[in-house]
Write a structure and sequence with these properties.
Blueprint: H1 2-8, H2 29-47, E1 58-62, H3 64-76, E2 82-86, E3 105-111, H4 119-130, E4 135-139, H5 145-158
Parallel strand pairs: 1-2, 2-3, 3-4
Length: 180
């Protein structure tokens, strides 16, 4: 509903939002990433008119999803243009990560009284040491849906594509592009 309303109000570009139930994989980050890269993204690209460029993809997670997003950042950062890590993280996941200066846009966030925000201290220190740009924001609230709805709205409106600069979708395979 949030995205539908933002699109209707022309505050964001059209986008496809996919949610995953990672309890199916018992929060095994390797299995989650394999499902994402081998199944979900190829399915979306094969069945919808979307860009296949990494810089046109975003991934974000809250709570355990924040830890999942941290794991994605540590191993698949070149596959996404935008990452949102919210309400939980673990800096040890990026200990051996090399940074090449071509990092995705990172939006780190938590509720002001969120018990999960403590992990951001170490993550921000590690990113600062590596010279990686990021934004960290807090929302009024705790480890709850009110905070996450606010953060999703901020992420979509302030960090992702705007309505004037929508990604260019790749033509469907097998279709001809008409001459201008």
């Amino acid at each position: 509903n949030i995205m539908d309303n933002l699109i209707a109000d022309k505050e964001v570009a059209e986008a496809i939002v996919v949610t995953m139930d990672n309890t199916y994989f018992s929060w095994n980050y390797d299995d989650i990433k394999k499902n994402l890269m081998d199944n979900i993204i190829p399915y979306i690209e094969a069945n919808y008119s979307v860009s296949t460029e990494a810089e046109d993809r975003a991934f974000r997670g809250l709570s355990m999803g924040g830890l999942t997003t941290t794991s994605i950042y540590a191993t698949l950062s070149d596959q996404f243009g935008y990452l949102g890590i919210w309400s939980a993280t673990d800096a040890s996941m990026i200990e051996n990560m090399t940074h090449d200066g071509d990092e995705p846009t990172l939006f780190l966030a938590a509720g002001k009284v969120d018990y999960g925000k403590a992990g951001f201290i170490g993550l921000k220190e590690a990113l600062d040491q590596a010279g990686v740009a990021y934004t960290y924001e807090e929302s009024l609230g705790a480890h709850d849906w009110g905070v996450w709805r606010d953060l999703f709205t901020r992420f979509a409106k302030n960090y992702l594509w705007d309505a004037e600069s929508e990604p260019t979708p790749t033509p469907d395979p097998g279709t001809e592009t008409p001459d201008p």
